[in-house]
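Look over what follows to help learners.
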Amino acid sequence: MLGAGALLITGVDGFTLIHVAYVVGTVGVPLAGGIVLVGARPRPWGVTAVCVVALAAIPVGVYATYVEPFWLRVETVSLAVDGLNEVDGVDGPIRIGVLADLQTTAVGEYERDAVERLLGFEPDIVLLPGDLYQFDAGLFDERAPGFTELVRRIVGEVPLVYLVSGNTDTVAGLRRITEGTGARVLDNEIDVFELKGVSVWVGGTTLFGDDAAARRMARRLAGGGQGLTGDGVGLAGGGDDDSDGGGGDDDGGSAGMRTGPGVRTGSGVRSGSGVRILIGHKPDAIELVRQTPVDLVVSGHTHGGQVSLPLFGPPLTLTGVPRHVAAGGLHELHGTPIYVSTGVGRERGNAPQLRLGVRPSIGIIDLVAGDR
């Protein structure tokens, strides 16, 4: 009855079926067990035992719906990067903050707290790999200012803030939200800047964008800006860039490349040296650099599965990378380190609003010099 009612109200899709199963498991099954315990007398001891076990689904459902989705954790990892060995006197690690998949219908205290906790770790760069918001387009003008305020708060402490689009947001929407904040939306583009004496190349790929432009961007990123002259020629000026980010041919040129805030041209930005980072919403973005590895890929999307089973992991990840990678954290795949965030928010729409065995997280990645 519960399942049929949910299907009639929301229609049928994969998330609806999961939601129905969840409601049946945490409400319907315990309810049936309670009815049997109260009304069926006498009853075999085996039936009693099954009904008692069924009632245990109630606290599990309460925890998964009202506790774990808001039990935010901070995941800190360290990654040795050979490119940092080429620079003498690097002043400490390069710290990257990752704020993935807020995926909220409106900014509230939970989201603001996540930002404050992230800023408390004093990152040098903040990456937001997609799904910043999830609401109907008709609500954009009403809801967007809250997200602009959130981004402005981050940029006020960390000028180097980069976003890419995901499943639930768009490049156009993100650019409207970030306009005037100093944050940058990368649409198959590369930004380059100098940080602590190190040249840093950040490339961002658009989930539903121009695949050819994404491949060109990834090749340039992996080459550490090959095709750029030493005096910065070919780097577009800073600020907002509304170009398609993928123009130009495959050999030479530098369309889709921009200088970051405070960048020094000339010998300060050196082709082929430093740190190369690719941001993509889905972990599958690593396929862009399968043949030409970079120093780090940062993604979100999977939410760690939102549900993870003991000894198995997440049953559903909606990505092509191995399950253990999709579950979240820092891994290596195809010779490239990849960090997959379990995200701050959770799937909306027809999906069940829960997490079980996969707490939400913000990520802190310290890039350090590798062994010489």
Observations:
- Confidence is low (pLDDT under 50) at residues 1-10, 227-255, 261-271.
- The chain is about 30% helix and 20% strand.
- The longest strand covers residues 73-81.
